[in-house]
Specification:
There is one protein chain. By secondary structure, the protein is mainly alpha-helical. It has 18 helices and four strands. A two-stranded antiparallel ribbon has the order 1-2. A two-stranded antiparallel ribbon has the order 3-4. A hairpin with a 4-residue loop joins β3 (about 320) and β4 (about 325). α6 packs parallel to α12 (about 265-280) and α13 (about 285-300) packs across α14. The two termini are about 45 Å apart. Mean pLDDT is about 90; it is low at about 1-10. The structure holds iron/sulfur cluster. Iron/sulfur cluster binds near residues 216, 230, 233 and 234.
């Protein structure tokens, strides 16, 4: 894949975008000022509500800081930052993210140690995403400010600690450990804007007078993917070879070859963004969950086993807010783990199996991994739909109804599915060496994989 060297820099497709990239580099002070402002607002919103009583009945977003913070974090920030990755790449990371910014600042004054090997393990983004998602469900992170402080604040403290120990003015946390960095990287691969390196111009340029500090440690010379780039703009114009540029949406994914794929990234996509996320968003709406829990509770009561029905559990382990009549038992916790785990294995396993078959039919190296990346649009839209459910709920509580909500959801799901099928068709079509019959069969198998990722959303929004 050669996403970066497709056209010479001397003829940019969007000169205004290249100028925007240059402006980002020149006006770095404005970006830093913005980052300090976001950091202060973030700290106020994540810390203060955790020490306030729960919102009173009848409180509103505009007169209760806790509700306002809940809406800001989970109703606006999280769903729309995710969505922005598909359209703008990781601009959030490089321009606004308070955690990346504070980690970088800490790294400027820290020990400056080199990044150890264990920290570079490719599975951290997968493990961190699954752990954060599941823990967030157990403590009801979207509903309660104390839980949000533990999850978001804990992550921020870890980001600062990593910054204080590793790197010199770098974002080692973002590059290797951030729970959403892998997700953002996957979605950014789809984005129609990116910083592009022209290798020919790079090689032709002499040694640069001022080296660029790329905080997330991107290899600027070989930069071909938008996944690791935080779009901070610092390298714009470097060696007269890098500029902010456009490309067709999904172009990077459609041109992936065997060397561009990463097994951990695919696991994160298939078992995390698709499987685990579906389980995490579905369990509270699932009639199967309720039926299974009631049946298990009855079974336990009939046998005088009451230990699992106990609810004297700290709120940082399982949701425990008696004042809001919201208390989880051990059984609730186990059932949530079981539901999310089952969804991850069944949905992720189904998608994985059919992609394996499609890959075998094509017969090209690592074909199933390449095909998996085609699921990025569907996974991104699915995540957005799941997360924006809280936006809809919070707005509904304020009397604001989203018109034609079912239609909007169906349209978004159809768009994500169409995007993934189009990418699959392109990747299958680009599989040199496979016969026409093999390509058709592979496309059929891949379509069944896509169906497995769409069906749970259809059931959740249009059947239950
Ligand atoms: S490659 Fe690095 S320096 Fe360049 S825009 Fe991306 S994050 Fe910033």
């Amino acid at each position: 894949m050669s996403a970066c060297a497709s056209s010479p820099l001397s003829a940019p497709r969007a000169p205004w975008l290249a100028r925007l990239g240059e402006a980002m580099r020149r006006h770095r002070g404005v970006i830093i000022g913005l980052q300090w402002a976001v950091l202060v607002a973030y700290l106020v919103l994540v810390v203060t509500p955790a020490f306030l009583p729960l919102p009173a009945a009848g409180a509103h977003l505009w007169d209760d800081l806790t509700l306002f913070a809940q809406f800001a974090f989970w109703g606006i920030w999280w769903p729309f930052v995710l969505l922005s990755m598909l359209f703008m790449g990781r601009v959030w990371c490089g321009v606004l993210c308070p955690e990346g910014f504070i980690s970088e600042q800490a790294s400027r004054v820290g020990l400056g140690r080199p990044v150890p090997r264990w920290l570079k393990w490719g599975g951290w983004p997968f493990v961190a995403f699954i752990a954060t998602t599941v823990y967030g469900q157990l403590v009801s992170v979207y509903e309660y400010a104390q839980a949000a402080l533990v999850v978001l604040g804990g992550s921020t403290v870890a980001a600062i600690a990593v910054g204080l120990v590793y790197g010199r003015g770098k974002r080692v946390w973002c590059r290797h450990l951030c729970p959403v960095s892998g997700v953002f990287g996957l979605l950014a691969r789809f984005a129609p804007v990116h910083f592009r390196t022209d290798r020919a111009r790079w090689e032709a340029a002499g040694a640069p007078a001022v080296p660029v500090n790329c905080a997330p440690l991107v290899d600027l010379r070989r930069m071909e993917s938008a996944a690791p780039c935080h779009m901070c703009g610092r390298c714009s114009g470097h060696r007269d070879a890098i500029q902010l540029s456009t490309r067709a949406p999904g172009a990077e994914l459609a041109r992936l070859d065997a060397d561009d794929v990463d097994r951990w990234e695919v696991r994160l996509l298939v078992f995390g963004l698709i499987g685990t996320a579906i389980g995490a968003f579905q369990w509270s709406a699932s009639p199967w969950f309720v039926r299974a829990k009631l049946a298990l509770a009855e079974w336990l009561i009939e046998r005088d086993h009451f230990a699992l029905l106990g609810d004297d559990i700290p709120w940082w382990l399982l949701t425990h807010y008696p004042q809001a009549n919201d208390v989880f038992t051990w059984l609730d916790g186990l059932m949530i783990l079981a539901y999310i785990g089952t969804a991850a294995v069944v949905v992720g396993g189904w998608v994985s199996l059919w992609l394996q078959l499609a890959g075998r039919l094509l017969g090209t190296p690592r074909a199933h991994l390449r095909l998996a990346y085609a699921l990025v649009p569907l996974a991104g839209i699915g995540l957005f739909l799941g997360l924006s459910g809280l936006t809809v709920t919070l707005l509904g509580a304020e009397g604001v109804a989203i018109p034609q909500l079912a239609l909007v959801r169906a349209a978004l799901l159809a768009l994500g599915t169409a995007g993934s099928l189009w990418l699959l068709a392109t990747l299958v079509g680009n599989s040199a060496g496979a016969t026409r019959a093999a390509r058709l069969a592979a496309m059929g198998a891949a379509t069944i994989a896509v169906a497995g990722a769409v069906l749970p959303w259809v059931v959740m929004y249009f059947v239950w």
